[in-house]
Every structure is written in structure tokens, then in C-alpha cells.
Design brief:
The protein is 0% helix and 55% strand. The protein has 62 residues and is mainly β. The radius of gyration is 12 Å and the shape is globular. The mean pLDDT is 88.
């Protein structure tokens, strides 16, 4: 899944190959694969600092 996080400061961060591990009122934690290094990494964001997020969806009709 692709994930774009929009922060309260107006910046947007994009991630690829995302697996969300936990999303609650305090933190959103997920793993992703770095485009630069190809290594799997883990990210943790303060949920209250996120204004919104966009994810990709898979079309199961194919």
C-alpha cells in the first residue's frame, strides 16, 4: 500500500510498501520500504500532528 501523510505544518510525506502496525489516538506506527536504500524501515508519527492521510487501494475486480 502507498501512504501519504499530510502534517499540520503543511508538509506531505509519501511512503511505499506500507504495512500499518498500529494506529490509535496517540501514535501511528508502520513499516515501509525505503526508496533510497531498499531497506525495510519502521516509522512512528504522533497522530495528533497528522491532518490527514491518503492510501492506495487494490482493485479486487481484476
Amino acid at each position: 500500500m502507498e501512504l501519504t501523510i499530510h502534517l499540520e505544518n503543511g508538509k506531505a510525506l509519501s511512503f511505499e510498501n506500507v504495512t500499518i502496525l498500529r494506529a490509535d489516538v496517540d501514535f501511528t506506527i508502520f513499516t515501509y520500504v525505503s526508496v533510497e536504500t531498499g531497506k525495510k524501515k519502521r516509522a512512528k508519527f504522533n497522530t495528533q500532528k497528522i491532518w490527514g492521510w491518503v492510501t492506495s487501494i487494490e482493485d479486487d475486480s481484476k
